[in-house]
Amino acid sequence: PDGAIAEKTVRISPTTVHKY
Question: Which parts of this chain are annotated as the region Disordered (predicted)?
């Protein structure tokens, strides 16, 4: 589930890509 929301957040927040 976290990956699903993270994928959407990475679009508005490039910092999320680091969380992957």
Answer: 1-20
pTM of the model: 0.11
CB 8 within 8 A of CB 18: no
Quote the tokens at residue 3: 């990956």
pLDDT tens-digit series, residues 1-20: 566 666 666 666 666 555 54
| Inter-CA distances, 3 with 7, 8, 14, Å | 6, 9, 14
If one counts every other C-beta atom within 10 angstroms of the C-beta of residue 19, the result is 11
